[in-house]
Amino acid sequence: MTARIAFVASDAPTAQIARAALASRFGDAPEKEADVIVALGGDGFMLHTLHRTQGLNAPVYGMNRGTVGFLMNDYSESDLPERLAAAEEEVIHPLVMEAQSADGAHHRALAINEVSLLRSGAQTAQLRISVDGRLRLEELVCDGALVSTPAGSTAYNYSAHGPILPIGSDVLALTAVAAFRPRRWRGALVRSSATVRFDVAQPDKRPVMAVADSRAVENVLWVEVRSMPDIGHRILFDPGHGLEERLLREQFV
């Protein structure tokens, strides 16, 4: 039985051209009726597609029409049905961010890669960090800090010198961004079931924004981050090119 495929693409011309060619060749089912969703673009578009289709039953198979394509498979038009039939599924669980902003509003957002706090003014941020209700760091003076999932550990977390986490590991990475004090603090690993809380000191003088993947909240007073094991994003990869292999390969380049 031929899989019903829904094709989605980023706004990039290369992605739109690919979508038109694939839809003409293999048909284009409505997302709600599809057996699989094929996303054409880069990693940012893949994250957007995973968030947007969270409530659907179809897994997402990405093909790279962007730049890095860490979450994507190589692009090819000729053998798509065979590749989809042989693809291996991986399930990743997002983080949930709860935050309160200075205007009193409460915000909630999901993040597949990471939740980051970043200074949004001229001065460094001052953060207080607690894990599961216990104060762990009285003062972190920095440009920011983040909590990363294993799937997102090679993205912003890695560029901030955080560790690459094996897929399926039961930990999250807590990483500082340009820490000034304490100078030698290199972050921490916490259980995936832990709740990490950031409290912002002097928010008027040292404003901080929080970002869950691409959703930003300005002028936060506090942020709590925890994993959501009851939510699973289904991603398809070509055999031998799944997240475990990609994360391992990144550590030897």
From TrEMBL:
This is NAD kinase. GO terms for biological process: NAD+ metabolic process; NADP+ biosynthetic process. Keywords: ATP-binding, Cytoplasm, Kinase, NAD, NADP, Nucleotide-binding, Transferase. The active site is at 43 (proton acceptor). GO terms for molecular function: ATP binding; metal ion binding; NAD binding; NAD+ kinase activity. It holds the Pfam family NAD_kinase. One of its GO terms (cellular component) is cytoplasm. It comes from Roseovarius spongiae.
